[in-house]
Amino acid sequence: MVLKSTFTFVAVAALALFTAAPQQADAHSWADCIDWQFKKGGLNVPGKQGQDWTDGAGKCNGYARRYPLGKAFGSLDSADPNRHYQQVHKNPNSALPCSDKRAGKEPGSDETRANPVSKAYGGKWGKMTVTNVGNTLCVRWPAKNHAVKDEENHKVQINLSKVRNGKDISQQELLKNTIAQLPFKNCKPGKNEDRRACGGCFKVPVRASGVYLLQWRWMLNKDEWYTSCADIQIGK
């Protein structure tokens, strides 16, 4: 009886310890901010490592389409609808570049182009990015448990349409206008792998003054892409 009771106690204790331990489930990322501005003295430089992307080290001056304000960083994977849009596995380069809330492996939130574009910004949504040719833009995203040692090859494409003040172009056309390749793992160190703050910076290329589609596109695995879309107003 003593042996049986001891075994039962150990088994129950082990189960309790397992269930009490924090569980890390893989989730999928999105662009949290399209125009992240570091505080004075921050490393707002393309290609530099070690930037501090955490709240308090800077602020966001431009967001993706219909991005809800007032939410905790990295929390929108549990929202309804969630923030991440996964293009179809079979041929992601022919998928919609921006979520319509219906298509895709994971539909995500509505990021279709508004008419006028200003309707997707302001009020309960974040404001639109306003910048100039030659400026540095920094985009921020949550790690969602994927900025770890055994996941080295993840990359973020930044695609910027050349169509001014017009409809969204196709994913295939966007791929002809990739202006930056950013390492996904450029993150602020931290214990919470799910909500580590990550990001990357790039220069705004030459465009005529107007509003353009910018796409953040993250490759997790082969043919597995997640996107966030934003309108950015570019001046001279």
UniProtKB/TrEMBL annotation:
Record's protein name: Chitin-binding type-4 domain-containing protein
Keywords: Signal
Superkingdom of origin organism: Eukaryota
Basic and acidic residues biased stretches: 99-113
Cleavable signal peptide: 1-27
Biased amino acid composition, Polar residues: 84-96
Coiled coil is among the record's keywords: no
Residue ranges, annotated region (Disordered): 78-118
